[in-house]
Amino acid sequence: AQSVTQLGSHVSVSEGALVLLRCNYSSSVPPYLFWYVQYPNQGLQLLLKYTSAATLVKGINGFEAEFKKSETSFHLTKPSAHMSDAAEYFCAVSDPGNNAGNMLTFGGGTRLMVKP
Amino acid sequence: EAQVTQNPRYLITVTGKKLTVTCSQNMNHEYMSWYRQDPGLGLRQIYYSMNVEVTDKGDVPEGYKVSRKEKRNFPLILESPSPNQTSLYFCASSFRRGNSPLHFGNGTRLTVT
């Protein structure tokens, strides 16, 4: 069974500072990995995904994530935080060999707060 | 515009009064799914459907029903809601491939008193 752990349910950074949101997964096979963002009163939007191509994945709004198989991690980073980045972020994993379609397992989420 | 539409956005009801939350997508996606979101627990899957007339249980199916009579619609039914079903619910859809991202609706906030 797959699982996803997001370290830190709340992260606070200053505007302009580095953003680092941590995600570790467990999976019996190399997985597909996703980061989603949820703004207040909205559904989740895809930020980026890893599907076994380049290990450094670039997403929207200046975010990127690096797949590290040895560490079973897929941490999300952004060099310089903007006030508009304040939102909740979810890491998710799916098993490429799962024939049951797009079955995602989500982490518990990390709420990012950006201070002026 | 490609979208997943859920209705209603907000719903307050009483214990035991049957309700339905509708979900519709216009992207011709085979796969549709319902999630509930609770603080600290992330999103947990309730039911999913890989195509018309094909549905299956997710991680937390108790107290819920679904149907998939048409490709675009996937309603969530609570036959006898209870207070522990107070939550934020999301419908999502995608093509039926593991690397295909999910498209989410804007959510339905349900309160059961």
Structure description:
By secondary structure, chain A is mainly β. Chain A has no helices and 12 strands. In chain A, the strands form 3 sheets. In chain A, strands 2, 5, 6, 10, 11 and 12 form a 6-stranded mixed β-sheet that branches. In chain A, strands 3-9-8-7 form a 4-stranded antiparallel β-sheet, with no helix packed on it. In chain A, a hairpin with a 5-residue loop joins strand 5 and strand 6. The radius of gyration of chain A is 14 Å and the shape is globular. Chain A starts with a strand and ends with a strand. In chain A, 38% of the residues are buried. With 113 residues, chain B is mostly beta strands. Helix content of chain B is 0%, strand content 50%. Chain B is built from no helices and 11 strands. In chain B, the strands form 2 sheets. In chain B, strands 2, 4, 5, 6, 9, 10 and 11 form a 7-stranded mixed β-sheet that branches. The mean pLDDT of chain B is 93. The chains are: A mainly beta (116), B mainly beta (113). At the A-B interface, strand 5 and strand 6 of A face strand 4, strand 5 and strand 9 of B.
Question: Which key terms come to mind for this protein?
Answer:
heterodimer; A: 116 residues; mainly beta; six-stranded mixed beta sheet; four-stranded antiparallel beta sheet; 12 strands; globular; B: 113 residues; seven-stranded mixed beta sheet; 11 strands; 0% helix
Order of helices and strands of chain B: EEEEEEEEEEE
Shape of chain A: globular
| Helicity level of chain B | under 10%
- Describe the biggest sheet of chain B? 7 strands, mixed
Low-confidence stretches of chain B: none
Distance between the termini of chain B: 36 Å
Question: What do the pLDDT scores of chain A average to?
Answer: 90
Low-confidence stretches of chain A: none
Helix count of chain B, per DSSP?
Answer: 0
Into which percent range does the helicity of residues of chain A fall?
Answer: under 10%
Listing every helix as H and every strand as E from the N terminus to the C terminus, the arrangement of chain A reads EEEEEEEEEEEE
What global shape of chain B is seen?
globular
How many helix segments of chain A? 0
- The assigned structural class of chain A equals mainly beta
Terminal residue distance of chain A: 41 Å
User: What does the largest sheet of chain A look like?
Assistant: 6 strands, mixed
Number of distinct beta strands of chain A: 12
Q: Nearest-angstrom radius of gyration of chain B?
A: 13 Å
What is the strand tally of chain B?
11
Rg from alpha-carbon coordinates of chain A: 14 Å
Oligomeric nature of the chains: heterodimer
